[in-house]
Amino acid sequence: MKLPHILMLAAAMTLASISTLSCKSADEKACCNKGAIEVAVPERPAGQETALGMTADPIEIVRVGFIGLGDRGTGAVPRYCHIPGVEIKALCDVEPDRVERSQQILAYYNLPAADSYSGPDAWKQVCEREDIDLIYICTDWINHTPIALYAMEHNKHVAIEVPAATTLDEIWDLINTSERTRKHCMMLENCVYDFFEMTALKMAQEGLFGEIIHAEGAYQHNLDPYWKGYWHNWRLDFNHKNRGDVYPTHGIGPICQALNIHRGDRMMTLVSMDTDPFNGPKHVQAQTGEECTDFKNGDQTCTLIRTENGKTMLIEHDVMTPRPYSRMYQLVGTDGYAGKYPVGQICLRTEGHENVAYDNLGGELVYMYGDLDALMAQHRSDILTPELETLAKQVGGHGGMDFIMDYRLIYCLQNGLPLDMDVYDLAEWCCLGELSRISLEHGNMPVAVPDFTRGAWKDAEGKAVINGFHYAFAE
C-alpha cells in the first residue's frame, strides 16, 4: 500500500473513532461540527422564563435558616450577626453539638436563640417552615443541590456554598427550579468580593486595560493539613471518585465577570488535561492503611476555554502539591494587565518605545506595592464604601470578602434587586466539573459548553459587575 493511501486510511479511522466515542451517558455525543463533544441542552419547560435580571419582592427583615454548621457554616453565623435587618430563625446540622456551638455564637452577640435542628433529614423541616425567607446551605458538596431544590420548592430563596452543583443534571435542575419558582439561587462564591478582584474589575470596566481578551484563574491550595478535618472524610472521598476540575469556582468566577460571560459573551468550548494522581492515593492509604489503585483526580488539572467572542481562559486545579496558595487571577487586555499572584501587579501600555534597547526585558510601566495601592485607590468598587470595607475587615471571613458577599446578598433581597450572582453564574462556574471530566476521559477532546441561558446571553448588554451588579438589557 502506498504511503498516501496509508495516511488516508489513518485519517478515516481517526474520524470514525471520533464519531463512535464510548460515552458515559446518552447525552454525550460526538459532534462532527468542529469535532467537539456535545452534551444535551434541554428545552426550557413550558411556562418558564429566563432568570436573567430576575427580582423578587423586597424583604424588609430577611429571616434566615442555616443548614450545615461545619467550618463554613459556623463562620457564616457570626457574620450574619453583624448585618442589619436579619433574623436567624433556624440552625441545623447532622451533629447536635455543632448546632449548640452556633447557638453560643448568637448568645455572645446578645441575639435571640434560633430553633435547633439536628439529624440526617432535619434540613427538610427547616425548609418547610413558613417563617424563613432564605436557606443558607453549607453542607458537604453532594448535599448542596438536593437541599436547594427542596428549599426553592418550599418558597425559599437559596444561597449555596461552592460548588453548588457537581453534575450537569444538578445544574439543570437548579436552573429550571429557579426559573419556575422565581426564587433566587445564588452560589456563595466569595472570591469575586476580594478587594483586588473588585478593583481590577472596576478598572477593566472603565477601559483601563483595553478589551479583556484572556484571563486566568485557579485553585492551588495544598490541603495536606486539612484532609482529616472534613466530616467523614467527604472531600478526599470526592476526589477519590471523581476526575476533572472538581473545585473550579474560586478561579473561574472573578474572570467570568471580567469577560461578561452570559452578558454579551459565553463560553463555547473547553479542553482539559491532567496529570496522573500521584499524591491522592498516598492520602487514602495513610487514612485506610490499604493501597489505593483507583484514585481518579489528577494532582494537576488544566482547562482551556474559548468564548463566542474569541476570548480565552485558563483554569487550573491543584490541591495535592506543596506549591504556594494561588488563585492565579490574571486579566490580559489589549492595553493592560492585572495580576494578583504571586504579587499584585498592574501593567499598562506606555508611549515612547522607539529608543528602548532590545535587551531591556522589563521596560513596561508596572505598578506594584505602594504605587499599585495608590492606583487602585483611584478605582474603588462602587459598593465598597470606606465604612463597608472597615466593617468587613473587622468581621472577617477570608479577610473580609465573605462578609461583603453576605452583606450584598441581604442588601439585594431587602431592596428587591437582582442578585450580584445568578443561577447562570452558578451553572457556568460549576459545569467545569463534569465537562472537564468528559474531555479527559475522551482523550482531551474539545467539549462544547452548554448555553445555560438558552440564548438569553445575547440580550444582555455588557456589565455583569460587582459595581452595582445590575443588568442592562438591550432594547
Please specify the SSE layout and strand pairing.
Blueprint: H1 3-19, E1 29-30, E2 37-38, E3 62-67, H2 71-80, E4 86-93, H3 96-108, E5 115-118, H4 122-128, E6 134-137, H5 144-153, E7 157-160, H6 168-181, E8 185-187, H7 195-205, E9 212-220, H8 234-241, H9 249-258, E10 267-274, H10 280-288, E11 301-307, E12 312-318, E13 330-333, E14 336-339, E15 345-348, E16 365-367, H11 369-377, H12 386-395, H13 401-415, H14 423-430, H15 432-441, E17 447-448, E18 460-461, E19 472-473
Parallel strand pairs: 3-4, 3-6, 4-5, 6-7, 7-8, 9-12
Antiparallel strand pairs: 1-2, 9-13, 10-11, 10-17, 11-12, 13-14, 14-15, 15-16, 18-19
Helix pairs in contact: 4-5, 5-6, 6-14, 8-10, 9-14, 12-13
